[in-house]
Amino acid sequence: MAYFEHEGCSLHYEEYGQGEPLVLLHGLGSSCQDWEMQIAELARHYRLILMDIRGHGRSDKPRERYSIPGFSADLMALLEHLQTGPVHLVGLSMGGMVGFQFAVDHPEWLRSLCIVNSAPEVKVRSRDDYWQWAKRWTLARVLSLSTIGKGLAARLFPKPEQAELRRKMAERWARNDKRAYLASFDAIVGWGVEERLGRITCPTLVISADHDYTPVKLKERYVSLIPHARLAIIDDSRHATPLDQPQRFNQTLLQFLAATSTTPQGSLSSC
Length: 271
Known about the structure:
One of its GO terms (molecular function) is hydrolase activity. Residues 21-244 form the AB hydrolase-1 domain. It comes from Pseudomonas fontis. The protein is an alpha/beta fold. It has a single domain (2-121, 192-263), classed as Alpha/Beta hydrolase fold, catalytic domain (Rossmann fold), CATH 3.40.50.1820. 41% of the residues lie in helices and 18% in strands. The protein has 10 helices and 8 strands. The protein has an 8-stranded mixed β-sheet with strand order 1-2-4-3-5-6-7-8, with helices on both faces. The relative contact order is 0.16.
């Protein structure tokens, strides 16, 4: 367990293993803990770096507006603090949004990029978009985090054999700070970098669960905008793919990373 400070905020991170640096970024209401089924396997091959995004886990939860560019700046500060040079970056859901932001702002800092069940923008354009986000915004404020956690866990892990995972994840979500959770939720709505995706020139893998919130067709569309990107679909999975299909996820990610790691890496301009 370690901490560093950026702009007055103490941020928690963890390191495991040796080799090329590999960063994992969690989603909304999550933390480093939720990569538990990846740590041992990935640390056998890479210098694994996990960070609790501002407002989450063991990181500080300052009373301020949060933003995806701000989360990206925190990541940049961590990489400079650890003197990693270019990294492999994996982001799940909101962490994938931070990954997109980081990739378009700092393409020279990436060896590769993996986006999991995420999107490069969350824009409210249609009446249906407005209704859906207004409903989620209202429920997030009205319901307790315990209720939200139970509902999410039931939706993400519906199988009878997932009862223990369902219980554990509901408990973790309930421990979130409500104000920080809402500030992070608000940071997502209206954000977007889709028009800048052409700036991402490193090898890119987009992983989509077949039963994710957003359809596979959406991923196919934005993958076509990224020069060196491909899409991998994981069957019988929902939004939390690293938890509900850990073996398939780890295998898919490691195969991608092995292919990108064979490319010589030099200075920051190597991507």
